[in-house]
Amino acid sequence: xxxxxxxxxxxxxxxxxxxxxxxxxxxxxxxxxxxxxxxxxxxxxxxxxxx
Length: 51
Prior knowledge:
Blueprint: E1 2-4, E2 7-10, E3 19-22, H1 31-46
Antiparallel strand pairs: 1-2, 2-3
């Protein structure tokens, strides 16, 4: 999402409340993690749980 000083600002895939994490504590998601998150979001959306 962004950064502020030594912190990276993160937000869950699909929206939600953001949080701060130390820049050394984060990494890019793997292709498998991105696919899993996208599938879970699509499933929840099909059930009407998220917009």
